[in-house]
Amino acid sequence: MTRTPTLTRIIVAIDPGLTGAIAWLSVADDKIDLLAVHDIPTATTTQNRKKKSQLLMAATVPLIRTPFCVAAVIIEEVSAMPGQGVTSMFRFGYTAGALAGLASGLGLPVHFIRPQEWQRAVRQPKGDKDAGRLRANQIFPNHAHLFARKMDHNRADAALIGLGWALLNTPTK
């Protein structure tokens, strides 16, 4: 019996926000590999005598438009959270929308996934932000150095967002 060649798809997964991250995963049959993770490019500027981070769109383009054929860009579906200020929520939503617009403008298919969906798919235990970092270390042990610091929880989330979407959207044999 002849085996059909494996088709590898590259997906870009984004944990949006100014402290978010972008992950690249390869999906082939029932094998999903994490290729890399990068923090969202930002710069600190001064506005009204306050230091603020802002998205560096030009630096983000090459992270989304890779030299590989990207099958999909997956972005965590964000919404307002209780207790968050109006200004910070606006900035968060603006960044998420800018990332979605950037991917769409590059002609890439954009999909959104709710946190509850990807967390359930990757079997992430409920808990603090460290739960995702610990789960990413379990699933991607060869990339544990990418999730070594407490502040790397966004990198872990980006990797798990991509994995969760792939698990939910890859046909099983």
Structure description:
By secondary structure, the chain is an alpha/beta fold. The protein has a single domain, classed as Ribonuclease H-like superfamily/Ribonuclease H (Nucleotidyltransferase, domain 5). It is built from five helices and seven strands, in the order E-E-E-E-E-H-E-H-E-H-H-H. Helix 1 crosses helix 2, helix 3 packs across helix 5 and helix 4 packs across helix 5. It is globular.
Short description:
The protein has 173 residues and is of the alpha/beta class.
The percent range for helix content is: 25-40%
Structural class: alpha/beta
Q: Could you tell me the number of beta strands?
A: 7
Q: Rg, please?
A: 16 Å
Largest sheet: 5 strands, mixed
Alpha plus pi helix count:
5
CATH superfamily: Ribonuclease H-like superfamily/Ribonuclease H
- How many domains comprise the coordinates? 1
Oligomer: single chain
Mean pLDDT reading: 87
Strand content: 25-35%
Global geometry: globular
CATH class: Alpha Beta
CATH architecture: 2-Layer Sandwich
Question: Secondary-structure element sequence?
Answer: EEEEEHEHEHHH
Distance between the termini: 16 Å
